[in-house]
Amino acid sequence: MSALAQADAAGATGPRTPSVESRLPDVGTTIFTVMSALAQEHGAVNLGQGFPDFDCDPKLVDAVDAAMRGGLNQYPPMTGVPLLRERVAAKIEALYGHRYDAGEEITITAGATQAILTAILALVRPGDEVIVLDPSYDSYDPDIRLAGATAVHVPLRTGTFGPDFAAIAAAITPRTRAMVINSPHNPSGTVWSRADMLRLAELLRPTDIVLVSDEVYEHMVYAGEHQSVARIPELAARSVVVSSFGKTYHVTGWKVGYAAAPAPLSAEFLKVHQFNVFTVNTPMQHGLASFMADSSHHLGLPAFYRAKRDLFRAGLARTRLRALPCEGTYFQCVDYSRVSDQPEADFCRWLTTEIGVAAIPLSSFYADGFEQRIARFCFAKKDETLALALDRLASI
Ligand SMILES: Cc1ncc(COP(=O)(O)O)c(C=O)c1O
């Protein structure tokens, strides 16, 4: 009797899903999904997950509609629609003074998320180490582990969330292949200064470390200018710069972003991109390219979000929550220690279910779950949404 027949006789066959040894055994549902579901269940104002509750400019929708109706619905080139790549290169040059070759150094991606994963898979090898600064966006660590590498988590300074260069220097080893930075920073809302960038350049100078610079909030800086790594030739030469049209044009659900990197890094990036998504949907790219011809939207974004930040902070000043500085992004962190000494996740759950405002615990951005009694709110919301949330927060 064959093994199969024996198993059949034992009643062990039939449809059977093989058990799989998970590549990411400790990854479950993200805190963002959990809090959004809780917010919905309890009718809470959702200031948890980072997305606007208002729509994009109708001109952008019209531009995508025109592209679709105009028959622009088939595969674009692997790296993206040429006009969009050209507009991205022109924008970076106008703002940061560095010219990327639109043909060889810009890739349109399925959001920043795919760009970051692709960069890490392409540039990091099994056994390498990658430095991540905590608190950090939740995709970096699993991306690094999927590449077979080790994420080395270095905390930002407690209190200010500024980079601790002595700690970063101490974390560099001969196996350090890459480092991920993120300014303006989610979740803390801090922004790196030019001096920070120059200090980083100095630190990396003797190394072969590649930088993945997550700049998805580049157009949300409220004082001074965004310090893209593209401004510093020495850093640009070793960096993949990542940004997101979703953040800039209020279309997070479209999942379109880009990566800009010197030709040798872009060539490796494309080898993974080609077999990951190959390319990104065509009409959105044409729509974005046409919309980007007018730079007033991205140039006006700081003023747009500064007004929301100021409105939200003025309201928070009337509550017992202490607003931490917010120099960039659409996130506002608060210290709630005057209100409660519960751990952050418990506090955010209570805030959602009992007070009716959803927030995200900062501890969820730390690999070791570091607790500081800080919660993160997203203020990319209509003024009336913020007003309703503030009314509720005033009651605690
Ligand atoms: C720091 C950071 N990086 C990347 C992303 C992902 O951007 P995208 O939606 O374009 O994939 C986000 C989204 O919240 C983010 O906050």
Report on the architecture of this protein:
With 396 residues, the chain is an alpha/beta fold. It has 15 helices and 13 strands. The strands form three sheets. A seven-stranded mixed β-sheet has the order 2-8-7-6-5-3-4, sandwiched between helices. Bound molecules: pyridoxal-5'-phosphate. Pyridoxal-5'-phosphate (PLP) binds at residues 50, 111-113, 137, 182, 186, 214, 216, 244, 246, 252, 255, 257. Pyridoxal-5'-phosphate binds next to helix 5.
Gist of the model:
With 396 residues, this protein is of the alpha/beta class.
Search tags:
four-stranded antiparallel beta sheet; 396 residues; seven-stranded mixed beta sheet; alpha/beta
Strand order of the largest sheet: 2-8-7-6-5-3-4
Structural class: alpha/beta
The number of E-state strands comes to: 13
* Global outline: globular
User: Unreliable runs, pLDDT <50, ≥5 residues?
Assistant: none
| Helix coverage percent | 40-55%
Average pLDDT confidence is: 96
Portion in strands: 5-15%
Radius of gyration: 22 Å
Bound ligands, named by name, code or SMILES: pyridoxal-5'-phosphate
State the major sheet: 7 strands, mixed
What is the string of SSEs from the N terminus onward?
HHEHHEHEHEHEHEHEHEHHHEEHEEEH
Terminal-residue CA separation: 72 Å
Oligomer: single chain
Helix tally equals: 15
